[in-house]
TrEMBL record:
Residues 17-59 form the FecR N-terminal domain. GO terms for molecular function: sigma factor antagonist activity. This is Iron dicitrate transport regulator FecR. PANTHER family: PERIPLASMIC SIGNAL SENSOR AND SIGMA FACTOR ACTIVATOR FECR-RELATED (PTHR30273), PROTEIN FECR (PTHR30273:SF2). InterPro entries: FecR (IPR006860), FecR_N (IPR032623), Ferrdict_sens_TM (IPR012373). It comes from the Bacteria. It comes from Proteobacteria bacterium 228. Residues 119-215 form the FecR protein domain. The lineage of its organism: Bacteria, Pseudomonadati, Pseudomonadota.
Length: 331
């Protein structure tokens, strides 16, 4: 169906910001008659103001297409602390949707919702380093999405997807900030105790490793199962429980140096890890899954890694496209 020109034409950024601010103000419980009158005057003052407001109303009618948590956060911006998405992120999202126009909505529908509301994210194969406002350093590994929510009471990072390494400002500069520094995943919370640590959000669990200092882990469904990890330790935890501390596998941190390290690893497990750094499908037949891989491989060229594996093991590549690769027995 053709899109109405008024929907497809972008809104000027300054008008979009004004419209969203009015939208936020109208959610207030203490809204006055005078404020409502000023809002109506703003709409009447310019046809672009009215067009911006009509688009807000149009978007609000489409939130059933948005993942539930995101829709609720956007339609109820004055949420309580600790909700999944911050008011600031919801306002940012709505403003951007007004600016980019209806075609942008179509593009956005094909974008992971975490990337839309995240402060920082990386694509498959991309890595990034960010200095946060308190001086902490954040490294994002491939295909990662993070929101930063600093307040007067805490410094919170929401890891929606992927893997990060966080070095606290205290660890870097020996400064003292009374606000706790935390990373929250789907499974629970990791609190820094003056430290440098890695957090990997997986499908049903979170992996944590401590390089320096210590962290405290609390599963979301049972905060009483608090686990403290010291430097040189790692663990995994679910929403309900945490495994005991284990010695840290330093090979898991090789991505910080742009490398992928395998130590007598099954081929299927190695390919699953390598697939994080590529788009599309990467796998192998069951007949070769148990073959063993060892070595250190530069992540800047994943095709070269596959060629090296093909030369080292009795396997061959089956390629339907550059985005669909399977390894099968060479004979």
């Amino acid at each position: 169906m053709a899109m109405n020109p008024s929907e497809s034409t972008p809104i000027a950024p300054h008008i979009a910001r004004q419209a969203v601010q009015w939208w936020v103000d109208l959610q207030a419980d203490d809204l006055t008659v005078e404020q409502e009158q000023r809002w109506q005057q703003w709409r009447d003052a310019d046809s672009e103001h009215e067009r911006a407001w009509q688009r807000i109303e149009s978007l609000s009618g489409r939130w059933q297409r948005v993942p539930g948590k995101l829709a609720r956060a956007t339609l109820m911006p004055r949420q309580e602390p600790g909700r999944a998405i911050s008011r600031r992120q919801a306002v940012k999202l709505l403003t951007n949707l007004l600016i980019i126009g209806g075609s942008g909505w179509v593009v956005w529908q094909g974008t992971p919702w975490q990337d839309v509301i995240a402060d920082y994210h990386t694509a498959p194969g991309e890595q990034r380093q960010v200095e946060l406002e308190d001086g902490s350093l954040l490294w994002l590994n491939t295909n990662t999405s993070v929101a930063v929510q600093y307040s007067d009471s805490e410094r919170l990072l929401r890891l929606y997807r992927g893997e990060v390494l966080l070095e606290s400002a205290h660890q870097r500069h020996q400064t003292v900030d009374p606000r706790p520094l935390r990373v929250r995943t789907e499974q629970g919370t990791v609190e820094a105790l003056g430290t440098r640590f890695r957090v990997y959000q997986q499908q049903d669990e979170t992996e944590v490793a401590v390089l320096d200092g210590a962290v405290a882990i609390e599963p979301v469904q049972d905060a009483s199962r608090r686990t403290v990890l010291q430097a040189g330790q790692q663990t995994r935890f679910s929403r309900f429980s945490s495994d005991g501390p284990q010695p840290r596998e330093d090979s898991r941190d090789a991505w910080l140096n742009g490398m992928l390290v395998a130590r007598n690893q099954r081929l299927d497990q190695f390919l699953a890890e390598l697939a994080r750094y590529r788009r599309g499908h990467l796998g192998c037949d069951d007949s070769v899954a148990a073959l063993r891989v060892s070595g250190t491989y530069p992540l800047r060229d994943t095709d070269a890694i596959l060629a090296a594996i093909e030369a080292l093991l009795p396997v061959r590549q089956q390629r339907l496209t550059r985005y669909w690769i399977n390894l099968a027995a060479a004979y």
